[in-house]
């Protein structure tokens, strides 16, 4: 009886002490996580602003993969093209190949028939590529367009 009567008050006294000793979360950590996720750009092109000089765009994005000139009445326009691989999912597939053999036929000639199959495992890559096109007019950024393309490659 004595042990039970001492245990409960000790437990109740210990709980507030443990709660007080628990490390407090850093200030604004919950706010910073939610604000940071919304405010931080997901890709470099999201930090580009209209009328930004082409030299600043090149510093942020790097050298374009290709540059396409655009005919316009007044000024100089070009499209800077960037492409990047976003994902490469690999599936392993089995491919069945027939094994052919020659067997004698009844009239003294041989004929080719399927005698079995050979199973080969191959890697099937599902590659997602993102292409970002930036319109640069008279040395300043105007707008961007992004698209994705999926391709399959079998090794």
What keywords describe this structure?
single chain; 155 residues; alpha+beta; four-stranded antiparallel beta sheet; 3 helices; 4 strands; 25% helix; elongated; disordered N terminus
Major sheet size, sense and barrel closure: 4 strands, antiparallel
User: Helical element count?
Assistant: 3
What's the overall average pLDDT, rounded? 79
The percent range for strand residues is over 45%
The amount of helix comes to 25-40%
Strand order of the largest sheet: 1-2-3-4
Radius of gyration: 33 Å
Would you give an account of this structure?
By secondary structure, the protein is an alpha+beta fold. The protein has one domain. The chain contains 3 helices and 4 strands, in the order H-H-H-E-E-E-E. A 4-stranded antiparallel β-sheet has the order 1-2-3-4, with helices on one face. A hairpin with a 2-residue loop joins strand 3 and strand 4. The radius of gyration is 33 Å and the shape is elongated. The N terminus is likely disordered.
Secondary structure topology:
Layout: H1 2-21, H2 29-39, H3 54-61, E1 66-70, E2 77-104, E3 110-137, E4 140-154
Antiparallel strand pairs: 1-2, 2-3, 3-4
Describe the structure concisely for a colleague.
By secondary structure, this protein is α+β, with helices and mostly antiparallel strands. It contains three helices and four strands, in the order αααββββ.
């Amino acid at each position: 009886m004595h042990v039970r009567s001492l245990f409960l008050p000790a437990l109740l006294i210990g709980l507030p002490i443990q709660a007080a000793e628990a490390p407090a979360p850093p200030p604004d950590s919950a706010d910073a996580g939610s604000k940071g996720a919304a405010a931080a750009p997901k890709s470099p092109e999201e930090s580009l602003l209209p009328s930004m000089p082409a030299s600043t765009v090149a510093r942020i994005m790097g050298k374009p993969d290709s540059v396409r000139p655009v005919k316009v009445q007044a000024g100089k326009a070009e499209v800077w093209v960037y492409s990047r691989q976003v994902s490469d999912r690999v599936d392993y597939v089995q491919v069945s190949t027939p094994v052919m053999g020659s067997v004698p036929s009844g009239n003294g000639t041989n004929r080719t028939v399927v005698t079995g199959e050979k199973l080969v495992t191959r890697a099937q890559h599902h590659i997602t590529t993102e292409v970002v096109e930036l319109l640069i007019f008279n040395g300043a950024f105007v707008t961007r367009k992004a698209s994705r393309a999926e391709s399959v490659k079998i090794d």
